[in-house]
């Protein structure tokens, strides 16, 4: 599985309150959540993000509440992948469960610049910055996580298995 997109870069401790502010949680529809994604940290994000773009952040991305609305809003906004130096555990789990790929890479997090175009080879854990032709690495997903991601999330994977 490969992704290519433009980078939106943020710092450390991007919490779920700024990913999707609580005032929008009364409507769990992904399309509505996407309209307010990252609104409290970057008011222009929704206007600028395009399908396939990638978020790169620092440490502890997705900290705060356990709301699954946060990765859902990111995915619905069109983001193909999130790369960070580290993730809050519950955000990591929620992202995988909805089929949003997230990668841990300290080098990529620290060196890739906002606006760069990058390419991600998820199967091999390779992140390539096309601006300067540098490669960074993350751990490869185990096969069962790759299957969840490629199915579009845990529920979709289970639906496929039940119907087979």
TrEMBL record:
Q: Any idea where the Aconitase A/isopropylmalate dehydratase small subunit swivel domain is?
A: 39-102
Q: Which GO terms describe its molecular function?
A: 3-isopropylmalate dehydratase activity
Q: A GO term (biological process) for this protein?
A: L-leucine biosynthetic process
Q: Which Pfam family, just one, is annotated for this protein? A: Aconitase_C
- Give the highest taxon in the source lineage: Bacteria
Protein family membership:
Belongs to the LeuD family. LeuD type 2 subfamily.
Tell me the protein's name.
Answer: 3-isopropylmalate dehydratase small subunit
Q: What is the lineage of its organism?
A: Bacteria, Thermotogati, Thermotogota, Thermotogae, Petrotogales
């Amino acid at each position: 599985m490969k992704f290519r997109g433009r980078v939106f870069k943020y710092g450390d401790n991007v919490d779920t309150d700024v990913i999707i502010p609580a005032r929008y949680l009364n409507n769990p529809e992904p399309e509505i959540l996407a309209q307010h994604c990252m609104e409290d940290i970057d008011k222009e994000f929704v206007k600028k993000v395009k399908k396939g773009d990638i978020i790169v952040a620092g440490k502890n991305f997705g900290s705060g509440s356990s709301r699954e609305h946060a990765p859902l809003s990111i995915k619905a906004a069109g983001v193909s992948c999130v790369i960070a130096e580290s993730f809050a555990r519950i955000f990591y789990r929620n992202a995988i469960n909805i089929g949003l790929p997230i990668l841990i890479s300290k080098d990529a997090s620290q060196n890739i610049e906002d606006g760069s175009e990058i390419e991600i080879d998820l199967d091999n854990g390779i992140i390539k910055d096309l601006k300067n032709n540098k490669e960074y690495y993350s751990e490869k997903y185990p096969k069962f996580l790759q299957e969840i991601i490629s199915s579009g999330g845990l529920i979709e994977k289970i639906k496929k298995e039940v119907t087979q």
